[in-house]
Amino acid sequence: MSDAQHEHGHHHREPESVLSLRVRALESLLVEKKLVASEAVDRIVGAYEQDIGPHNGAKVVARAWVDPAYKQRLLAHGTEAIEQLGFGGVDLKVVENRPGVHNMVVCTLCSCYPHALIGLPPVWYKSFEYRSRAVREPRVVLREFGVDLPESVEIRIWDSSAELRYLVLPERPAGTEGMSEAQLAEMVTRDAMIGVAVVRPPAPAAR
Amino acid sequence: MLRTTKERTHFRQPGPAPRFVTGDRVLTRSDAPVGHTRLPRYARGKHGVIDTVHGSFIFPDTNAHGQGEQSHPLYSVRFDATDLWGASAEPCAPVHLDLWERYLEPAVAAPGRSPS
Amino acid sequence: MDAVPSREIADMTGATALPRKNGELVFDEAWQGRIFGMTVAMSHDASFEWREFQAQLIAEIAHAEREGESSSYYERWLHAFERLLADKGLVDPAALAERRHEFEAGHRDDVF
Fold first, then answer.
1. Nearest beta carbon to residue B99 from set A91, A137, A161
2. What pTM, to 2 d.p., does this model score?
3. Is A55-194 in CATH node 3.90.330.10?
4. Is ipTM strictly over 0.90?
5. d(CA C9, CA C18)
6. Which end of chain B is more exposed for a tag (fewer CB within 10 A), N or C?
7. Does residue B113 form part of some domain?
């Protein structure tokens, strides 16, 4: 888990009020030089504060990877299973990638998206191009995303035409045995949970 | 803290007993779109198979037309790509749609159809 | 357009990961949000590439760790941002020092 540095006080730390003044001075100068607009800063802070990002969904995936009983519950009753991890507010169906089956999610009617689990939808997801082509030629679309699947693999497209939201449970990559749940969660991307990417095995790391 | 934009966050509600079961072949309605807000154009008048019975969900069409919130059975329906797009369809690329019972009619098995 | 979070920024990992709680960004003090927003705003306006700032941030964090400083994430961010602004000639360090003095002495009191 990446936490903010704990502030133990003492050492070489400036008092908070000095930092606050310093930032105000900087903003004052930048605004004066027209390098920054304060309204833009407001908008940005607001947008990023609301952006949950894919962390919640990634936690769900990691839990399913390490806990087979949880995975079964997740696939059978997605809504209840994510509530067990503290994520509510969505009627959810989780679909599992496995050898021979790859799942992909789209909303052709609008751009429904499991916000609570994977944050704000990417611009391309909401595009008319994706929404019309994903149902019609998923294999070609996936190839454009860098996922090349042989014809023997069934590509199941889920068009979220009702209030049910869909989340893809990606395949757990090889070489991840022994990794902690937190480490696994860091590997899971938003695109993998939409179904336009797979989770790559970890590169041999020099840590 | 999760934020939800709608007042109701769960749309699954008690409703009438479902008419179809998993495996049933169905035909989607093809009549005029008035009121059929959640049946995409590409899937109208098409044959599909019930994949999952989701239970009952609030049906948006009655709600949108001032008839209040009514709950009706919702299904995941699976469509073969060739049934939707014809001969030029990609192989092994079935589409699944969540459709309310009111969009569906029972269909007889198509003659000469090979198992997918 | 700047209201749509950039994945490159929001999903930074490792030591540069934005502090979060349950997936949500955490700003313990208002100034942290301001410095975050200012940096992001200027990267959008192409004053610099995000990559450039990220490199400064990585260097700043590494330096602070080596020196055993217990400065917070956003304090390090502030140092990194000031350094980048100076390196790119966007802000004259002397002008910034003078402006700081004016705020500290109470000659200026703009709030943002």
1. A161
2. 0.68
3. yes
4. yes
5. 8
6. N
7. no
CB atoms within 10 A of CB C62: 12
Q: What is the pLDDT of residues C39-93, one digit of tens each?
A: 999 999 889 999 999 999 999 999 999 999 999 999 999 999 999 999 999 999 9
Chains that touch A (3 or more CB pairs under 8 A): B, C
**Overall domain count for chain B:** 1
- Residues forming beta bridges with residue A165, ordered by sequence position: A92
Cβ-Cβ contacts under 8 Å, B97 against chain A: 159, 161
What are the C-alpha distances in Å from C86 to residues A187, B5, C49, C79, C100?
A: 36, 43, 15, 11, 15
Q: CA of C51 to nearest chain A CA: how many angstroms apart?
A: 18
CATH number at residue B37: 2.30.30.50
Tens of pLDDT along A22-37? 999 999 999 999 999 9
Chain C residues with CB-CB distance to A123 below 8 A: 4
Domain spans of chain C, in order of start: 7-104
Interchain CB distance below 8 Å, B12 and A158: no
The verdict on a CB contact (< 8 Å) between C33 and A45 is: yes
Least Cα separation, residue A55 to chain C (angstroms): 5
Provide the pLDDT confidence category of residue A2 given band limits of 50, 70 and 90. very low
Q: In chain A, positions 126-155, which contact chain C (CB-CB < 8 Å)?
A: none
**Is B102 part of any domain?**
yes
pLDDT score of C1 more than 80: no
A68 CB neighbour count, 10 Å cutoff: 9
Which two tokens mark A96?
Answer: 């599992």
The answer to whether the CB atoms of A24 and C11 lie below 8 A apart is no
Dist CA C38 CA A42 (whole Å): 9
- As assigned by CATH, the class of the C7-104 domain is mainly alpha
Three-class secondary structure of residue B109 per DSSP: coil
* Contact yes or no for C44/C2 (Cβ under 8 A): yes
CB-CB contact of C106 with C63 (8 Å) = no
Q: How far is C90 from chain A (nearest CA, A)?
A: 9
Residue B64 lies in a domain: yes
